[in-house]
Design a protein that fits this description.
Alpha-Beta Plaits, four-stranded antiparallel beta sheet
């Protein structure tokens, strides 16, 4: 029996022009227009025309990615493809909650914009950062980053993405020092990421407090299908538990590899990545090469998964 999971990417997947082709058909444009109205600034113009540097700033990237992911999810549902469960990487967890019926689009896009503002206030762009460490295990990365943090340069594991790929996060000095020492410890590569802050680190604690106030006042429904949470890697549907985990998520590691493995154990056979790029598709394949993954980011990739779904029992 086919069991479908919708996946939603986080920051780093944004690029100028994303979603514009899909927005031209079947009512997709309404997502762009609604985001502009709710946020009271022309997000859609930034998405379509750039510049990339401005789109990458966290309080712009977050609502932009959510808008495209939500639009893709709705196009899939219009075609009769519905998820049995959902998950999103970091910011993508909010899009996953939208797709699972827990959040309205209006509330979701406004919340992630505020989330981005809070994150930027907690650590202004340029003072913190993140880097992908390739070819080392979690224990080694944890030990090295803990030693650097003890020296006064905070840095820690932030995204446990797949075997051999761990993202670290912290102060700019901490991340730079960790890149050097982790390469000395055997890392194949250490790549600084195109993000504007030290996400999923202790430096986000001030943002978590402010986000908690927003979430507390938010009308959220229980999810209609399980949403696998970043913090626990386990499925959740209860709205109160979802809110608690979203607050904790800001300063906790994203346990993506573990999360995907739990989805597979639950019976998922088809993964559909909803949004720009193929980052999550690549991670799923590295976690389990036997899995089928469909990235959907334009009309051609949407048509491909709709055609394939005709054969799913």
């Amino acid at each position: 029996m086919t069991k479908i999971a919708f996946l939603f990417p986080g920051q780093g997947s944004q690029k100028v022009g994303m979603g514009t082709e899909l927005a031209a058909e079947a009512g997709g444009r309404v997502f762009f227009e609604t985001a502009d109205r709710v946020l009271e600034f022309p997000l859609s113009k930034l998405m379509e025309e750039g510049p990339q540097e401005e789109l990458t700033v966290t309080y712009n990237a977050q609502p932009a990615l959510l808008t495209v992911g939500a639009m893709v999810a709705d196009r899939l549902k219009q075609a009769g493809i519905r998820p049995d469960c959902t998950a999103g990487h970091s910011l993508g967890e909010y899009t996953a909650l939208y797709a699972a019926g827990a959040l309205s689009f209006e509330d979701a896009v406004q919340t992630v914009h505020k989330r981005g503002l809070f994150m930027n206030e907690a650590m202004p762009a340029g003072e913190g950062g993140m880097a992908a460490i390739l070819g080392l295990d979690e224990e080694t990365v944890s030990d090295v980053t803990a030693a650097i943090t003890a020296e006064g340069k905070l840095v820690q594991p932030a995204n446990l993405n797949c075997p051999g790929q761990i993202v670290i996060s912290g102060t700019k000095a901490g991340v730079e020092e960790a890149c050097v020492r982790l390469k000395e410890a055997g890392a194949k590569r250490a790549l600084v990421l195109d993000v504007s802050g030290p996400f999923h680190s202790e430096l986000m604690r001030p943002a978590a407090g402010k986000l908690g106030e927003v979430l507390e006042s938010l009308e959220m429904q229980d999810a209609a299908v399980p949403v696998f949470a970043n913090v626990t890697a386990q499925p959740v549907t209860d709205s109160g538990e979802v809110k608690r985990l979203l607050i904790e998520q800001l300063s906790s590691p994203v346990r993506w590899e573990e999360l995907v493995r739990h989805m597979i154990e639950s019976g998922v056979t088809q993964f559909i990545e909803c949004g720009p790029g193929k980052v999550l598709s690549g991670l799923v394949r590295k976690i389990d090469r036997s899995m089928t993954v469909w990235p959907v980011y334009d009309e051609e990739t949407l048509a491909a998964v709709i055609e394939a779904a005709k054969e799913w029992a």
